[in-house]
Amino acid sequence: MERMKDRVDGLEAMALSLARLGVLGRSPAAPGTVATLAAGIPSAWVVAQLPYGWACLILVLLFPAACWACDRAQQILVKADPGEVVVDELMGFLVTMIGLPATGLSLLLGALFFRLFDIWKPWPVNVLDGELHGGLGIMADDVAAGLYAHAAVAFLLPLLERL
Predict the structure, then answer these.
(1) How far apart are CA 163 and CA 154, in angstroms?
(2) Rg of the chain over all Cα atoms, to the nearest angstrom
(3) Which of 23, 40, 44, 45 is at a distance of 20 to 30 A from 59, taking alpha carbons?
(4) Nearest-angstrom CA–CA distance, 44 and 94
């Protein structure tokens, strides 16, 4: 059972809620996949409706807030990179989908490739995962996995759409 500090104040509760994406991180099975599907897909669709510059600004603003929330959650839960911290999956999936059309096919490919690269952790994703710590460490490997997934979707999507 995870240990939490005796008292969680309002700011810490907010950080924990953001890091868990509300209740999504408490999913008993595959919380990262649940967060990608339940929060990532709708969020990516909304962000895709914005001009590219605004979409990039959202990601730039989300990153430090998510790093902070991940760092605080890790301290509150007294556990390094807790599985219930899933805001990193949201960020990684948004990186996967930025600048791509939000169609059923692209969102499905994005979710599949993002989860593949996030779980597999090819180089340098595995280096970021092992060497960085705290909130930045939790976030960085998912952003890197998102970059790999973005490249895969951007490459495959036009080919599959021609079929």
Answers:
(1) 16
(2) 16
(3) 23
(4) 6
- Mean predicted confidence (pLDDT) in 75-89: 94
* Average pLDDT rounded to a whole number, residues 91-114: 98
Alpha-carbon distance of 29 to 49, in angstroms, equals: 31
Distances (CA, A) of 147 to 22, 36, 163: 25, 15, 25
Among positive and negative, which fits the CA dihedral 31, 33, 37, 39? Answer: positive
Task: Please tell me the predicted confidence (pLDDT) of residue 143.
Answer: 98
pTM of the model: 0.92
* Nearest alpha carbon to residue 41 among 117, 97, 84: 97
**What SS3 state is found at 121?**
coil
pLDDT for 8 equals 62
pLDDT at 107 over 60: yes
Residue 4 CB contacts under 8 Å (≥ 6 apart), including other chains:
76, 77, 78
> What SS3 string covers 132-158?
CCHHHHHHHHHHHHHHHHHHHHHHHHH
Residue 34 scores a pLDDT above 50: yes
What distance in Å separates the CA atoms of residue 117 and residue 124, rounded to the nearest whole number? 11
Q: Dig out the tokens for 6 from the structure.
A: 């005796």
**8 vs 149: CA distance, rounded Å:** 36
Q: Please answer whether residues 79 and 2 qualify as being in contact, where contact means their C-beta atoms are separated by less than 8 angstroms.
A: yes
